[in-house]
Write a structure and sequence with these properties.
The chain has about 180 residues and is mainly beta. Helix content is about 5%, strand content about 35%. It has a single domain (about 1-180), classed as Jelly Rolls (Sandwich). Strands 1-2-8-3-6 form a 5-stranded antiparallel β-sheet, with no helix packed on it. It has a 4-stranded mixed β-sheet with strand order 7-4-5-11, with no helix packed on it. A two-stranded antiparallel ribbon has the order 9-10. The chain is globular, with a radius of gyration of 16 Å.
Amino acid sequence: MPVISSAGPYTLAHIPDCLGHAKHHPENPVGVEYPEIHKVLEGKANFLLQKILLQKRTLEDIVLVRATAGDLVCIPPGYGHVTINPSSDVTLSMANLVSTRFESEYAEYERLRGAAYYELVVERLEKNPQYPQIPEIRIVDADKCPRPWEGSHASLYDFVGDDSMALFLNPPDKVADRFGNR
C-alpha cells in the first residue's frame, strides 16, 4: 500500500508466513543506502544484518537481531539482511515499511549463496564457506537496537501520515546521525 507524504512516497506491506530473502538496499542519489523497518506481527524473527563493503567484497559487521511479536527492527543504511524464522512449528508474520524509491538488490547474496551465516533448525549458526573472511557475529535483542525515528511508535501504522517517518526513509542522509551504526 503506497503512502504519499510531503517527504516522498513509502510502502507499508504485510508479509504473511515469511520465508525471507537475503537482500541489500541500493544507495540514494547522495550515496547513502536506504533503511527499512520491520514489525513482527506474530511468531519470532531473527534478522541477520551484515554490512558489506561491496567495492572490496569484505564484511565489516554482522549482527543477529532477535525479535518477537510486537518488536520493531530497523535495518540501517549500509546493511543487507535476511529474515529467518527460527521456529519450525510457529508461523512468522511481519510487515515492513520501506521507501518506494528503490528496488532491493539480491545479486551479491545469490553469488555468495546466502548471508555470511546460516541459521540451522537446531538454533545453531554455521558460517557460509563462500565468504573468505567473516567477522565475529554480535547477537542482540530487538529492544536494544537503535530506533532512528522520533517518538515512541509502537505500530507501523502510527507512521502513516508522519512526515518525519518519510524523511527517515527517503533521504536517509539527512538523519544519518540517528542510526547509531558502527
